[in-house]
Amino acid sequence: MLIGVAVAGFCVPLISGWDRHTQYSTMLIGAPLAARPRVAFMSPLSSASSARPSFAADAISRAKKVEQIEGMRTTAEKHDFLAIAENGGMTATELTKFREAVKEAGGNYQIMKATLARIAVNGTRNEAISEYVSGPMGIIYSDDPVNVAKATLGYIKVVNPKPDKKSKEPVKPKLTLKGGVLNGVLLTPEKIVDLSKMPSLEDSIAQLTGNLKAPSTNLAMTIKGVSGKLARTLKALAEKKAEEEGR
Questions:
Q1: Angle CA 146–71–145, to nearest 5
Q2: 3-class SS at 200?
């Protein structure tokens, strides 16, 4: 009897304690049922299922992407001028100010993933802009390309850090104009700079008003310096004036 108790007392410390493989306490041999630790078992599928995103969340994400693509497709088809601006590290405040500058000039700036933007512009009249779609970017769109180009280039000069003459390391710009498209015609950054130097919409209208009393040939020369919807309007007016002079 004493021998049995001694053996039991020797074995209990060996088999009791914490099992590092199962992370649960082992049961003590000979201990009453009430004193034994209760072990909760978890289904092997429960942890994996909780780690998977819900189908509802996936459906919302897909629906939002489709909405963004369709919205930008409409924008790319509707507006004459689109440009790609790369965000190289603007702060939230700087980004807000850039949006405001573009909006005051008659345009909008929308941040969008390059993969979605490339799908959106495909098949539109301005799909040529896909050549510049890459990286962290946003799309500028407007029907007043001259004013928006002026505003964009002006803000780039303000927000980008000035190069340090003492340091040989290049300074990373916070905002870069990668390129654009005007009525389906691809524009390099240099072409957009040239566009920004043209008369604005207001100046063009004023110029048109001054030329309405001039011969139709002078009015036609004015048209060559204007683009987009305004050019088509001026052309129609010039043709109408020419018909009136021919009568």
A1: 5
A2: coil
